[in-house]
Amino acid sequence: MSIPPSAPRRRQSPTAAELRAWRLFIETSEQVKNVVAARLQNDAGLSTGDYGVLLALSEHPEKRMRSSLLAEHIGWERSRLSHHLGRMERRGLIHREPVAGDSRGAEIALTVVGAQLFRAGSAPHLHAIRDVFSRALSPEQLASLEDVMRTLREHVDDLPH
Questions:
Q1: Distance between CA atoms of 57 and 114, rounded to whole angstroms?
Q2: How is 83-112 classified by DSSP, letter by letter?
Q3: Integer Cα distance of 78 and 85 in angstroms
Q4: CA pair distance 103, 7, nearest whole angstrom
Q5: Is the pTM of this model over 0.70?
C-alpha cells in the first residue's frame, strides 16, 4: 500500500546499516582531515583555514577578493572569516584594503609573504593528501568514492535550507 502524496510521511529512524555507514563516514573523514591538517601545520605552519584562504586568493586573477566573496567561496560565515583574517593579517599573510565608495566593504589581498608561504606549503600538503588519502584507495575505489560524494552533494544541495 502506498502513501498518498498529500498524506504526511512518518519519519523513520536510520537502519542499523545506515547508522554504521554514517558513523564510519563521520569518524573516518574526521580522522583523515585531522591527519592531513596536522601535517600541513607541521610542514608549513599553516592551518587548513589559512590554506583555504591563501588558495582562494592565489587562484583569483588579481590575488585579491572582497571579503564577502571570499567567505562565500570558502563556505565560511563572514564573522568567522573576519576573525581568521585578523589573525592572518597580524602574521603578514594578507592585508585588508577599503573598497572605494563602500565604507563597509573590504578587499583581502595576498601579500608576498602569504604567497611564499602558500607556495612552500603546497607541495608537502599535496604529498600528505596523496599519502593519507589517495594511496589507500585503488583507482576504481577513488572513482566510486567520487561518484558517491557527487550524489550526496547534489542531494544536500537540493534539500531546503
A1: 10
A2: HHHHHHHHTTSEEEEEETTEEEEEEEEE-H
A3: 10
A4: 52
A5: yes
